User: Fold this.
Amino acid sequence: MIEHIKRARLRGRDGLWDIALSGGKVTAIDTSGASVSEGNVESASLTGTTVDAGGRLVCPPFIEPHVHLDAALTAGQPEWNRSGTLFEGVQRWAQRKAFLSVRDVKSRALRAIQWQVASGVQFVRTHCDTTDPKLTALHALLELREQLADVVTLQIVAFPQEGIVSFPRGEELMVEALKLGADVVGATPHLEFTRDDGVRAVKTAFDLAERFDRAIDIHCDEIDDEQSRFLEVVASEAHHRSMGQRVAASHTTAMGSYNDAYAFKLMRLLSLSGISFIANPLVNIHLQGRFDTYPKRRGLTRVKELLAAGCNVCFGHDDLFDPWYPLGTANMLQVLHMGLHVCQLMGYEELSDSLKLVSSNSAKTLGLTDYELEIGSDANLIVLDAIDEYDAVRRQSAVLYSLRGGRVIAETKPSSTSVNFDGQSVPIDFSHRREAGEGA
Ligand code: FE2
Assistant:
């Protein structure tokens, strides 16, 4: 069990800090008496009950607010999604779903969670398809939620991939999933047969959330159709029922296609409602815009504008080597990297304050408490191979240590690279620290 972290850099604070941990909690955060050498970073190390961060960034763990663990690692089974559309993904998944078993889902989801934990993730909200009369995947993920509770906090969304209204017994299956223990109510209004069915699905989801006292996370308007306007229904229901703090709208990619007059009007309701947004840049830059010629839409929601309006926005990976997305290693820094590009959040201040999109903002979306690095909070921390947030994003830094309740649950040994110039081996670290004599 780790009791001290020495020479840590912290978000929003200057200098070096020592952190004391005890009983699974952070018990003290003090200015460090030690320093680091001129290069500003020394090797991080673990000795006994002490982690010496060596001047590296220590922060709360990353959060995965939107993933589909039931489908993870099924790409190409039984066929690849050759068109790259969301709709072919649904078809391929329907084929694969026929062969699900609890053992199959558990082994794939476990590997995906191991990848997540290795990348510094400790909190995961996963969707789980309920349009399966046997709810096989749900049984598997409920078992994993309990078995892995000491390394990861799993929230399971009852997710009706083929609809609540359009799928036979769709609502009944949702109720069954919630009774079995699903944490969050989902919906897919834009995939229901008609606009009216979609509105009914949203209202049903809110009714179920009230009845079972659960949060809501809706796959909302994940389509390039500028007429897909279920977000206004979600925000309106959240506002009227005063449930905004427990509601997330995932994807909302159609918002990227709305005309500006409508988007401007909508923004007021979104702010009033207090709902959170989860954008999924890796998957949506891949799936959306598939029916466009040129200009080709980016297919992401209006992240920059939502943030400017004071709305809570975070990023999720969404799919992981499955029928909708053929790549991915569950690393949230890859998600962030893509999101910052596609949403054009590349100003210096935006980059320097960007980790919140895969951490603090996600914690708010998931309703987590004791998350931030403060005295009295849970001793869940990661040590990044970076001086600061900017450095972590630019270099896609490894998570050297991940601590859960003070226990090391993941460790990465830094790699080393050198180049041979003029017969001399020169070590390379890709850092951006300015050497003496460089620049003005
Ligand atoms: Fe999704």
Observations:
- The pocket of fe (ii) ion is lined by residues 66, 68, 127, 219, 250, 318 (CB under 6 Å).
- The chain has two domains: 4-60+372-411, 62-366.
- The first strand starts at residue 4 and ends at 8.
- Residues 78 and 99 are 10 Å apart (CA to CA).
